[in-house]
Amino acid sequence: MATVSLPQSIGRYRLLAPLGQGAMGVVHRAHDPQLERDVAIKLISVALAAGHGDAAETASRFAREARVAARIQHPNVVAVYDAGDAGDQLFLVMELVEGEALSQRFSRGDFPEVAAALEIAAEVADALAAAHLAGVVHRDVKPGNILLTRRGQVKVSDFGVARAVGETTELTRTGMMVGSPAYMAPEQVQGRPLDGRCDLFSLGVVLYEMLLHRKPFPADTLTTLVYQILHEDPFESEAVTARLAPEVAELLKWSLAKDPEHRVPDAATFAARARALARDSAASAKPTARLLIPPPAGSLPSGAPLPPPSYSTSAPTRQMTRARIRRWLPFAVAGALSAVLAAALLLKSPAPPPDRAAAASGSSGAGDAQPLRVEPPALVADVPEKNAPAMPPVKVADPARQARRENAAPAPMEIAAVATPSALGAVAAVPTPEPAVPAMDAPPVSATFEGRTGAEFHVEPEETEVTIDGRAIGPADDWDGSGGGKTYTFAGPGDYLVKLSLAGHRTEWVRVRISPNARRDIADVDTELEELD
User: Fold this and answer.
1) For the residues 80-96, what does the mean pLDDT come to?
2) 9-283: which CATH number, 1.10.510.10, 1.10.569.10, 1.20.1280.170, 1.20.1560.10?
3) Which CATH architecture has domain 447-528?
4) Each residue of 203-227: pLDDT tens digit?
5) Catalytic status, residue 158
6) Which residue among 32, 85, 126, 140 is the active-site one?
7) What whole-number distance in Å separates Cα of residue 18 and Cα of residue 27?
C-alpha cells in the first residue's frame, strides 16, 4: 500500500499526530495557535467525497453541513469549531476528546454491563435529540462515532458528515463502503427519504451489540447484509431473547422495527426508556457484589434505609474495607446495647401478685397441683393478620421524657405490650428505647454543583464517605465515574444536600443541584477535605 503524504499544517492548524482512520478520512490531533488549544481535525479527500461529481460543489456542501452541525450545542456532542478546504483536502475542526471510541472497546472484548450499556445508549439518544431538534440527521451512528471520555462521558461525533460528503443509496463507491452498512436502517439501504428515526435504528444496532456482543445482522457479504436488514428478525432465536430481560428486549425490538412508523418515535423517548431500564437493572443486581461486611441481624433501627450497594467489579482496597467497618459499626453497637437492655428489664420484671397467682391456680392453699394459667396482657392494638410474625411489636413508655413534659417526678417504668390471645400465653416484652434526636440547624454549605442527571465525586481522600440527604452511599472512590467507580444518578430535579466526612478530617457539606437547564449532564463534585491537626 502506498504511503500517503500529509501536510504538516492545514490552514492555521498545525498537525501533530494521527488519531485514527475511517472510510472517509483520517483524524489528526492538531494545535490551534490562535486560540492556543489542541483540537481534532478530520481530513477528507475531495476526490473521494466528490466521486465522479463536481469537487467545488462538494466542498460547498461540506462547508454548509459543517455550519449546521456547529449549531448543535450539547454536552454529549463533539463540538464543531471550524471547516474548510485546502487544496485537495476538506477539513473539519472539532473538539478534542481525550478517551477512546466504543469500537476500540469492542475490538478488545470490553463490553459494558447491562445498566452501563443502557446509560451509554441513553446519552447517545440525548445527543441525537439535540441534533434532530436542530434539523440534523446523523446518518452514520456506529461505535466508531461514539466516544467515551476518560471519565466515562459519552460524546457523539461526525454529525452531518455523511450528508456533507454526498451520501447516496449506493453502498459502494470507488471500491469503498460509504458509512457503515451493518448499522444502517432499512429505509437507508433502500434509498428512501430519511428522518431521525433512521438514527434510532442505528442506535438500536449499537445497543444490541453492547448487550449481546454480536451484531444483529452478522453477514459476510454486502448482499446478504442488505437482505438481513430488510427481511430477517434478529430476535427469532430463543437463545437471543433468553439473555435479555423482557423490558430490554422490548426496547430493542421497538428500535429495530423495519417500518419507521412502528419504531421508537423520537430520540427523547428512547433516552427516557433506556435510562429507566438502566435504573431498574442496577437496582435488581445482586446487592452483595461489593458488600464486604453485612450488617448484624437486628442491628438496623426499624424503618432505617439500607445504604445502596456498589456493583463495581474492581478489587476492594484496605481503605475501602476500613470504611465499610466504620459504616456498620454504629449499627452493631446499637444492636448490642438493645439486647443488653432487654435482658436487664426481663430479669427485673416483678412476680405476679399473690391474689392473681392464687386465682390463676384455682386454690388458696395446699392441694392438688393445678396447671398454671397465665392471662395475657391487655391488648393495645388490633389482632395481627394470620401471617404476622409470632413476636409482636413492643411499645415502650419513656418515663423520663414524660416527666420532663409534665414537670413531674418520673414514675416507675411501665411496659405496654401488644399481644394476641393465643397458645403463646404471656409474651415477654422486649423494650426498644426511643432515641432522642436533637434539633439540628442547617449545616453550612461550602459549594453548589449543578448537573442535569447525576454527579461524580472526585474527593480527596478517595475513601471519604458520601452521604446524600441523610443516606450513606459509600466511599467517594465508588462514585467517581472512573477506574471502576460509577456515576451517581439522582431521582429527579431538585437540591440535594451532600455530606463528605472522614475520620481525622473536617466534615464538608455541599449542595448538588439537579436541573434540566444545567450546562453539564454530570455534576463534578471536586473538592478536598481539610485534615484536622
Assistant:
1) 85
2) 1.10.510.10
3) Sandwich (2.60)
4) 999 999 999 999 999 888 889 999 9
5) no
6) 140
7) 6
